[in-house]
Design brief:
single chain; 580 residues; alpha/beta; nicotinate phosphoribosyltransferase; TIM Barrel; 2 domains; six-stranded parallel beta sheet; binds adenosine-5'-triphosphate; binds 1-O-pyrophosphono-5-O-phosphono-alpha-D-ribofuranose; binds nicotinic acid; binds magnesium ion; EC 6.3.4.21; NAPRTase_C
Length: 580
């Protein structure tokens, strides 16, 4: 639609068309900063200023109006939020975003300005609707959810939202937006973490390539949740407390041309005495026969080491990694050593990272032996440059000497799969289970209110996730709960012949109540706690479910009673065709 047309339509309802863009003046009043995390009235606040009830699709608001107009808005509903397939061709997903969901739901209220905006979008709606929205909050919403950081599988409701239809419907888009990317990035990080290995360091370096500022902040947060050890993103360190790490750039090296560019060559040693650091480095360069190395690079390294004598980690691939960068690093590291400081290591950002890391380690060792400096052999080798799961796997196969993997673009943009397909489906209305049918069995919804139990086997690994129906009869509900030591029948929801008896050693209830009567039920865990929980949960899952190539599918089953409810409703809901 052209601007002119759109202006013409200004005063009409615009359910399916673009509305007039907000005036710039108003757009700048959006509080687009990361808020303080608690408001003065004690309500939890979203982490991001855009997360308000207006961060939604227009159709949620038009549906809300119609529900209100037809007096259907307060009918009680249950919605499930779940995904149908794990991302990246894998068999597991890490659940992220719950804290952001709880913060959003807790804070849900339309401001007068937002109500005015809805009024302009729906100019013909009754004023009574706007008045209704002005009082709407989440006090009648109950949320059950799986713990954030859990390893989760397809079809299990990650979040179950219960409450009046109107508010549950209005939450849909925002909840999906908060969970989909968070879970995708956390899963991507977990997969990269598995590829890198437990004893190596993994850093997220992706801010410059992230999908805008929000994408960048979310990517840093959920990469950390999924197993990164730190980030280069200063705002993520400031706001979320994620450990911050960094080296230096090529521009720093190329900005030095000659010795004249170094105005002050001196450094104070650990005893407080002044020395010429360049002269000392040059003496080692001569002694080791490294005179082919780039002088301007050496000067840059000296400049950096003067600034950070206890944090000297040099980017060594600007001119020639093995014939210059590593040699210059060693000269400066030897000079620092004479002054009581220890260098840290190098970063490789191009070339064959397997070969270069091994060759660098060899040089560290040689020089360490020559000067009897044991720690030289253990200098940190950081690798970066378009790393992703397949590259890391290839490096592992070839062998390498990398200690730290710094991953940017592929981690934060989730290049291997750009979206997770969580959906939000109505499963119960006014106490009766609802079903959404599809030609694809996989897309049929599992009706009714459900709890999920993780059945743990004798070796401590999760064996099956079992969904059971939760009805109004408390006694019946209790009978449904699987118990340790008791054989339970687990059925594939759609393929009758796929069934298994499981006798679990331990049974874990996955869903917990997190929000009720407008309040958080338990205090939120910290990001650090959620990350530790995620890593310990991952370590319990059988390796064959986690591996990147041809992973074994994990069983997600339904109980006999849920199977019967599902198939009865399915049959009842399919119209019988007539043929003549
Ligand atoms: N030993 C290795 N096995 C498999 N992949 C590797 C190995 N070493 C590096 N890689 C990957 O190969 C790619 C090399 O990137 P590219 O072809 O752009 O060359 P480069 O080394 O960056 O060259 P330059 O930056 O000098 O142009 C990167 O994605 C890197 O992660
Ligand atoms: O490769 P990524 O996984 O995204 O990791 C981050 C990259 O960002 C930096 O440089 P940049 O790519 O901006 O420039 P350079 O590679 O030319 O140095 C860094 O040197 C890495 O190469
Ligand atoms: O600190 C670094 O070396 C760094 C940070 C972000 C992107 N590339 C490199
Ligand atoms: Mg690069």
């Amino acid at each position: 639609m052209t601007q002119q047309n759109s202006n013409k339509r200004k005063n009409e309802d615009n359910h399916s068309s673009a509305s007039t863009p907000r005036e710039l003046k108003r757009a700048t009043t959006v509080d687009y900063i990361y808020n303080d995390q608690e408001s003065s009235n004690g309500r939890l606040k979203p982490l991001n200023g855009f997360v308000t009830p207006l961060l939604t699709d227009l159709y949620q608001i038009t549906m809300a109006y119609s529900l209100w107009k037809n007096n259907r808005h307060e009918v009680s509903t249950v919605f499930d939020l779940y995904f149908r397939k794990s991302p990246f061709g894998g068999e597991f997903t890490i659940f992220g975003g719950l804290e952001e969901v709880v913060r959003f739901v807790s804070d849900f209220r339309y401001t007068p300005d937002q109500l005015q905006h809805i009024r302009t979008m729906l100019p013909t709606c009754d004023q009574g609707f706007i008045d209704y929205l002005s009082k709407l909050d989440s006090s009648e919403v109950t949320i059950h959810a799986i713990k954030e950081g859990s390893v989760v599988f397809p079809r299990i409701p990650l979040v179950r939202i219960e409450g009046p239809m109107i508010i549950c419907q209005l939450l849909e888009t925002t909840l999906l937006c908060l969970i989909n990317f968070a879970s995708l990035v956390a899963t991507n990080a977990a997969r990269h973490r598995l590829a890198v290995g437990k004893d190596k360091v993994m850093l997220e370096f992706g801010l410059r390539r992230a999908q805008g500022p929000d994408g960048g902040m979310s990517a840093s947060r959920y990469s950390y949740l999924g197993g990164a050890d730190g980030t280069s993103n200063v705002m993520a360190n400031y706001f979320f407390g994620i450990p911050i790490k960094g080296t230096h750039a090529h521009s720093f090296v190329t900005s030095y041309n000659s010795v004249e560019d170094l105005k002050d060559k001196t450094i104070v040693d650990t005893q407080g005495k002044k020395h010429d650091l360049l002269e000392l480095a040059l003496s080692f360069r001569k002694e080791l026969g490294y005179e082919m190395s780039s002088m301007s690079e050496l000067v840059a390294f000296v400049a950096y080491a003067r600034s950070f004598p206890t944090g000297f980690l040099a980017l060594v691939d600007t001119y020639d990694t093995l014939n210059s960068g590593v040699l210059n690093f060693l000269c400066v590291a030897l000079a620092l050593d004479r002054l009581g400081y220890k260098g840290l290591g190098i970063r490789l950002d191009s070339g064959d990272l397997s070969y270069l890391s091994k060759a660098s380690r060899k040089l560290f060792k040689q020089v360490g032996e020559k000067y009897q400096l044991d720690y030289f052999e253990k200098f940190t080798i950081v690798a970066s440059n378009d790393l992703n799961e397949p590259t890391i796997a290839a490096l592992n196969r070839q062998g390498h000497e990398i200690d730290t993997f710094a991953i940017g673009t592929n981690l934060v943009t989730c290049q291997a799969q750009p979206a997770l397909g969580c959906v939000y489906k109505l499963v119960e209305l006014d106490g009766s289970p609802r079903i959404k049918l599809s030609q694809e069995a996989n897309k049929i919804t599992l009706p009714g209110r459900k709890d999920c139990y993780r059945l743990i086997g004798s070796e401590g690994h999760p064996l099956v996730d079992l969904l059971v129906h939760v009805g109004s009869d408390e006694k019946e509900n209790q009978q449904q709960i699987p118990k340790p030591g008791e054989k339970v029948l687990c059925l594939h929801p759609f393929e009758e012949q796929k069934r298994v008896y499981v006798t679990p050693v331990k049974v874990e209830k996955l869903h917990h109540i997190v929000f009720q009567n407008g309040e958080l039920v338990n205090p939120l865990p910290t990001l650090e706690e959620t990350r530790s929980f995620c890593l310990s949960e991952l370590s319990r899952v059988r390796e064959d479910h986690l591996r990147s190539s041809n992973p074994t599918p994990y069983k997600v089953s339904v109980s006999k009673n849920l199977y019967d409810t599902l198939h009865k409703l399915w049959l009842e809901s399919v119209p019988v065709k007539e043929m003549k």
